[in-house]
Specification:
- The protein has about 100 residues and is of the alpha+beta class.
- The chain is built from three helices and four strands.
- A four-stranded mixed β-sheet has the order 2-1-3-4.
- The longest helix has 9 residues.
- The radius of gyration is 13 Å and the shape is globular.
- The termini are far apart.
- Bound molecules: FE2/S2 (inorganic) cluster (FES).
């Protein structure tokens, strides 16, 4: 099996379908997806050279109303439902993420 190196120290899986249903839901105008808003908030690049992975995945089967399902790969036993427009500082603190 081949190995592809990554610089990620952590990975967050964010439901892209939840974000699509909210037509974004985050960012200054409420039009940005949670994954994109979090990456911007944390100063992260996209891709495997970023310090942390914040990636959109397909529907995770929870489908909350006016929220986005998030899985922290470090804590897969507790999936998070982030309310539309939630304060990103609070999200970062709750998930114990480090701002760069
Ligand atoms: S639409 Fe996001 S969990 Fe189903």
């Amino acid at each position: 099996m081949k190995v592809v190196r990554s610089d990620w120290s952590r990975a967050l899986l964010v439901c892209g379908k939840c974000s699509k249903k909210l037509d974004g839901g985050f960012g200054p105008k409420g039009r940005e997806s949670l994954a994109k808003a979090l990456r911007r908030h944390l100063g992260l690049e996209k891709g495997r050279r970023a310090a942390m992975g914040v990636i959109e995945v397909k529907c995770l089967g929870i489908c909350p109303k006016r929220a986005v399902t998030v899985i922290d790969a470090d804590d897969p036993h507790a999936w998070r439902l982030v309310d539309e427009g939630a304060d990103l500082d609070a999200v970062v603190e709750t998930l114990g993420l480090i701002r760069r």
